[in-house]
């Protein structure tokens, strides 16, 4: 692995909750070895990150600067950053036909329930966001602690898929 960071794209349907959390967490803990990005397969018009997600990130001391919802189409453009790993974090996005990713990055699916779904109170939804943040952070800490040889392109896909079983 070179000195440049490993670029990881997190995908979800709307790019408002899980993928945003994963991007922010990885950029916070990535130690310069990783750079997180996020996008959605079909973000709604004027989609914004979920305010509860932003709140739990801030409460955890994680920067929310620059976080915004965007379409995965941005990352298929010729001038887009080259991704080394693409991880779907919701089952809907995992089942969709993804665009062509330049460089043919490794892929994995790490499914998490949508913390913004359901009819719970704001306090219950806030707790769901906290739990999702905690679960994502644990799995991402495992990813960033991997030795360099496990992050080589030929190993990355298998390693990332194995981490989907870690909890």
Please give a structural write-up.
There is one protein chain. The protein has 167 residues and is an alpha/beta fold. The chain has one domain: Response regulator (Rossmann fold, 3-Layer(aba) Sandwich). 35% of the residues lie in helices and 13% in strands. The chain is built from 5 helices and 4 strands; from the N terminus they run βαβαβαβαα. The protein has helices at 18-29, 51-59, 91-94, 122-144, 153-163; strands spanning 6-12, 34-40, 85-88, 106-109. The protein has a 4-stranded parallel beta sheet. Strand 3, helix 3 (91-94) and strand 4 form a beta-alpha-beta unit. Helix 1 (18-29) crosses helix 4. It is globular and about 45 Å long. The model has no long low-confidence stretch (mean pLDDT 87).
Provide a quick synopsis of the model.
With 167 residues, the chain is an alpha/beta fold.
Write the layout of secondary structure elements.
Layout: E1 6-12, H1 18-29, E2 34-40, H2 51-59, E3 85-88, H3 91-94, E4 106-109, H4 122-144, H5 153-163
Helix pairs in contact: 1-4, 2-4
What tags apply to this protein structure?
alpha/beta, Rossmann fold, 4-stranded parallel β-sheet, 5 helices, globular, arsenical resistance
């Amino acid at each position: 692995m070179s000195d440049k960071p490993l670029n990881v794209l997190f995908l979800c349907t709307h790019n408002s909750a899980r993928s945003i959390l994963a991007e922010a967490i990885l950029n916070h803990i990535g130690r310069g070895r990783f750079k997180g990005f996020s996008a959605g397969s079909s973000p709604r018009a004027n989609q914004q990150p979920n305010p509860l997600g932003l709140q739990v990130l801030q409460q955890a001391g994680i920067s929310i600067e620059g976080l915004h919802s965007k379409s995965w189409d941005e990352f298929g453009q010729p001038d887009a950053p080259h991704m080394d790993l693409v991880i779907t974090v919701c089952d809907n996005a995992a089942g969709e036909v993804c665009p062509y990713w330049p460089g043919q990055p490794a892929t994995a699916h790490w499914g998490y329930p949508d913390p913004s779904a359901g009819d719970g109170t704001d306090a219950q939804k806030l707790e769901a966001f906290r739990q999702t943040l905690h679960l994502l952070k644990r799995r991402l800490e495992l990813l960033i602690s991997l030795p360099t040889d496990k992050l080589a392109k030929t190993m990355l896909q298998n390693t990332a898929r194995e981490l989907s079983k870690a909890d």
